[in-house]
Amino acid sequence: MQHVWDLVVVGAGPAGSQAARTAAARGLRVLLLDKEEFPRPKTCGGLVSAKACAALGLRLPTALGERRIESVRLVGPDGETAVTRTAPFLGWTVDRAALDAFLVEEAVRAGAEFRPGTAFLSIENAASGHISLRTSRGNLRAYALVGADGSLSSVAGALGQSRGLPAWRTALALSAMLSLPAPRLEEVFNGGRTVNFYCLPLPYAFGWAFPYRERVNLGLGAWSGAGAVLPQLMAGFARQLQLSWGITLQAVEVRGAYLPAGGFVFRPGRGRVLLAGDAAGLVDPFSGEGIYFALRSGKLAAETLAGCLGTPGASPNYAPRLYAAACRRELLGELRLALALAILTGTKRRFFRSISAHPERLELLVQIMTNPRAYRAAFFRAQTLGPPARAG
Ligand SMILES: Cc1cc2nc3c(=O)[nH]c(=O)nc-3n(C[C@H](O)[C@H](O)[C@H](O)COP(=O)(O)OP(=O)(O)OC[C@H]3O[C@@H](n4cnc5c(N)ncnc54)[C@H](O)[C@@H]3O)c2cc1C
Fold this sequence. Notes:
FAD/NAD(P)-binding domain, D-Amino Acid Oxidase, Chain A, domain 2, eight-stranded mixed sheet, 11 helices, globular, binds flavin-adenine dinucleotide
């Protein structure tokens, strides 16, 4: 008789590893699988916000943190005017391959089994008391499944949902790495402790430059409908930054990936299957942050399933409803307000005008990086204080 796992988690990004670690720590027999061999490269800015660090519930090993971030700088559409705001701790920049490998190790330490190089292919049967699934390395059986397989989720596809979200609900983000010797990097990035965000002339777009030890991660994200112009914009953006830092121009290798904008319809899963992280469409549509939402949703998914599997009479079939309610309470309200802000601020020109006229308003970005209820607090404040004074 084939072994039945309590939980199979598909995808070992932040959402999957966090789900596997949480469920294993609750005593479930957990199998975590990923189609890639680890460590694997991951296209990302690598900024783990302070709220994501707290959601992780683990100390990041010192070797993993590239730079401790303590200030945020917003650069205007002219590429020069900027407003900076400082806080005691805004997060860490990390190499995503290293972060994700560390999170897998922690899941294994908690008792999960990890199978790299194993791709989920399909759900064969979910009608009986368990799920049979087909992978590139044979069939498996489990009482429950978490699909944490990213923005083009095959698990969501197997549930009859579209793989990936429609273009109008998706952002495209491009990123690249540049070498920058530490002394120059520390000059440019205020001691290496500042992350730069750039207001770009595109709808719903942000550019960024994040300091690593001796490299800079730069990139931009925008509504995927503008995808055709992004490579050219990225080339100009990378060139302009290098010129402004006074360094010899480097050829940059640009990588891109889709980001599902959160705040629209949420995909919690169906039957014994829950979706988490990008697979569930949980990325902040204003800032582009996804790691925090992946960690929180992975944990909520595992806790929900552990509760259902461990309670006599409580079937995992109730899990999607319970999980959706937990995500609604904690994450979806924020994502909807973030979406409203993304739509209101459009190309960010007005946003920058408002911030440069009232630099204290940059506190919003500090709050977004540190406070899981940042948007609610900001909207509440705006309602209490009335409409902001007209900018310039
Ligand atoms: C250019 C760019 C920059 C970004 N910068 C930031 C940032 O600085 N900070 C931030 O917070 N967020 C950032 N994000 C968003 C962030 O990267 C994602 O939201 C986050 O990685 C989501 O985590 P996840 O675990 O849901 O999915 P992922 O990290 O995408 O992990 C999914 C895993 O599933 C595996 N997988 C896929 N299909 C299968 C299959 N069929 N079978 C088995 N395994 C499978 C993949 O190999 C992968 O390991 C950025 C995104 C992009 C594109």
